Amino acid sequence: MMRATIWHNPACGTSRSTLAILQETPGIDVEVIEYLKTPPSRDKLVQLHRDAGLTHRQGLRTTNSPAAELVAELGLKDADDATILDAMMAHSALIQRPLVETEKGVRLCRPAETVREIL
């Protein structure tokens, strides 16, 4: 049995699609973390982005409300990675989702089918 952890937002269609792939794949034990309610720790987010091969800027959600407004309000358009990470810790809505972690790695599953790379 392979364990998969998804940092999930049930209001996001891509996140729901990714979760459905995980749930429909035999042999996968899925842990669902609604990251808006239970955000990852700073160290965990750093590890997830590193293991996914992402900079914090690449892991920054910049579209749709409230993320777009926060990016503008906090001046993140030209901010460095440390500032972006600080903002994500203060406002979990800025974390791009869904992030999925398995023993084979971490992926930002946009599109949802990207999750198959680590199953």
Description:
- The protein has 119 residues and is α+β, with helices and mostly antiparallel strands.
- The chain is 34% helix and 18% strand.
- It has a 4-stranded mixed sheet.
- It is globular, with a radius of gyration of 14 Å.
Give the % helix.
25-40%
Q: What's the Cα radius of gyration? A: 14 Å
- Pick out the low-confidence regions: none
Largest sheet: 4 strands, mixed
**What's the tally of helices?**
4
Offer a few descriptive terms.
single chain, 119 residues, alpha+beta, four-stranded mixed β-sheet, 4 strands
Question: How would the blueprint of this fold be written?
Answer:
Layout: E1 2-8, H1 13-24, E2 28-34, H2 42-52, H3 67-73, H4 81-90, E3 99-102, E4 105-108
Parallel strand pairs: 1-2
Antiparallel strand pairs: 1-3, 3-4
Short structural description:
The protein has 119 residues and is of the alpha+beta class. Helices cover 34% and strands 18% of the residues.
